[in-house]
Amino acid sequence: MSDDLGAMLRRAYEDGATIADLKSRHGLTYHRARVLLLAAGTTLRKNGPSSVVPASPSMVIVYEHGMTIHEVAENFGYTYSTMRRKLLAAGITPRKKGRRLA
Prior knowledge:
By secondary structure, this protein is an all-alpha fold. It folds into two domains: 2-39; 49-102, Orthogonal Bundle (Arc Repressor Mutant, subunit A), CATH 1.10.10. Helix content is 56%, strand content 0%. The chain has six helices and no strands. The protein has helices spanning 2-14, 19-26, 30-39, 57-64, 69-76, 80-89. Helix 1 (2-14) packs across helix 3 (30-39). The longest helix has 13 residues, at 2-14. The relative contact order is 0.15. The mean pLDDT is 89.
């Protein structure tokens, strides 16, 4: 089970999720998520934002159809800050804070 979880965490991490995203998504501590990533052979990124994997087309679509960044982040299992970076990397123009399309 830990091997499967480690492999799943590794795929998500390599797709741009942060350790903070993974711990929240899977109900783990930061330390446990990190240990599982390392056990799965993951090369960890340096701290701080680097190259961000852009949001997927489905993430962009739901944002453009009215979801807030918070809602998109929750729906796809990311933190707000990671989702915002992913959406910006995908080229979206953010709405004013708290604005939702009608």
